[in-house]
Design brief:
The protein has about 220 residues and is of the alpha/beta class. It has eight helices and six strands. Strand 5, helix 7 and strand 6 form a beta-alpha-beta unit.
């Protein structure tokens, strides 16, 4: 596991990397690789969310659960897949909502969301690795302690961050966020199983921009090119 965070994140999180739970997690990942398992995303992409969205530039957080577990999908950003890979169903539904919500939004021909991350939208999964073809295989190994800490640090040290919490799993993380200092937007998960139950029509993307505009911050260009 290559621990390669952008400097402003390293300043906030460096103490975590010396803690017992993360040392055990590192050992677990080493054992997985020694046993011959393919781990996604590749080692150099595990902390992509922290490299593409510096702590100092953070505006919003979109919280996912697990990385994708298929070949060439995951690259360290929640809901995002690498170019050349078919957009998964949840991401297709995110694009559908954007087309409804944002005037002129054109559904792109790929699912790579780095452009959002580089504008201050952190695409954070609760678990940062997974065994190939085995969803949930790296849950409860320490990642959730780390990413819960990340959410708490954001809540404590920043103000006016917009948290987009889709589905029950993400919404449970609201307990870690100071709602007096931050904005919490909740909706159903964009999965095909639940998107019709409150994700479509949630208008989270235009609402995010309305909040940013009100606070005098630059809005997000949601169009993926």
């Amino acid at each position: 596991m290559v621990i390669d965070l952008e400097p402003s994140w390293l300043e906030v999180l460096h103490i975590e990397f010396e803690k017992d739970y993360l040392l055990k997690l590192k050992q677990f990942l080493t054992e997985e690789q020694q046993a011959g398992y393919q781990i996604y995303p590749k080692s150099g992409d595990i902390f992509n969310a922290f490299r593409k969205t510096p702590f100092k530039d953070l505006k919003a957080v979109i919280l996912g659960q697990d990385p994708y577990h298929g070949v060439n999908q995951a690259h360290g950003l929640s809901f995002s897949v690498q170019k050349g890979v078919t957009a998964p169903p949840s991401l297709k539904n995110i694009y559908k909502e954007l087309a409804i919500d944002i005037p002129g939004f054109m559904i792109p021909d790929h699912g790579e969301l780095t452009e959002w991350a580089e504008q201050g939208v952190m695409l954070l999964n609760a678990t940062l690795t997974v065994r190939a073809a085995s969803p949930g295989s790296h849950q409860k190994k320490g990642w959730e302690i780390f990413t819960d800490t990340v959410i708490q640090k954001i809540s404590e040290q920043k103000e006016g961050i917009i948290f987009l919490l889709w589905g029950k799993f993400a919404q449970a993380k609201a307990a870690l966020i100071d709602a007096k200092k931050h904005h919490i937007l909740k909706a159903a998960h964009p999965s095909p199983y639940s998107a019709n139950g409150g994700f479509f029509g949630c208008k989270h993307f235009s609402k995010t921009n309305a909040i940013l505009e009100k606070e005098g911050k630059k809005t997000i260009d949601w169009q993926i090119h």
